[in-house]
Design a protein that fits this description.
Helix content is about 40%, strand content about 15%. The protein is α+β, with helices and mostly antiparallel strands and about 140 residues long. It is globular. Bound molecules: zinc ion (2 copies). Its cofactor is Zn(2+).
């Protein structure tokens, strides 16, 4: 499995390093995690990695397109390794839980603006806001 990550890194001309491999592994197993969670997951693997090193890895992987950074309004940035399929997110207003929603049109930009103002639009960022099943259940129980 590690060799898959090595191939991914090489494909975008990034050097293969243990922190980069550890971050990719963490994001494969945990979708939509914030930076602190990524640091904790990486440290379980590589205890001596610094916060800064993990920040740098996330920045490099995001820039290279191996990792996607999502930042719902009012929430901390989360990271995921499901990239390239233009999927959207549904966010719980109560607890901040995030889940994937497949792209409605199947390809970017997904939504076509009624008037693009002359811009060439390549992406529509869609966030569905609502209440997750756990929070709905909690509300009924109360
Ligand atoms: Zn919730
Ligand atoms: Zn996602």
């Amino acid at each position: 499995m590690a060799s898959d990550f090595e191939a991914q890194l090489r494909a975008v001309s990034l050097r293969v390093t243990r922190p980069r491999l550890a971050v990719l592994a963490a994001l494969r197993d945990h979708a939509h995690v914030d930076t602190d969670t990524v640091i904790a997951l990486v440290r379980a693997e590589l205890p001596r990695v610094s916060h800064q090193a993990v920040y740098d890895v996330l920045r490099a992987l995001t820039k290279a397109g191996l990792v996607r950074r999502i930042e719902p309004a009012g929430a901390t940035a989360r990271y995921e390794s499901r990239v390239g399929d233009n999927h959207h997110h549904v966010v719980c207003r109560s607890c901040g839980a995030i889940a994937d929603v497949d792209c409605a049109a199947g390809h970017a930009p997904c939504l076509t603006p009624s008037d693009d103002q002359g811009f060439t639009v390549d992406e529509a960022e869609v966030v569905y806001w609502g209440t997750c099943p756990d929070c709905v259940t909690g509300r009924i129980a109360r």
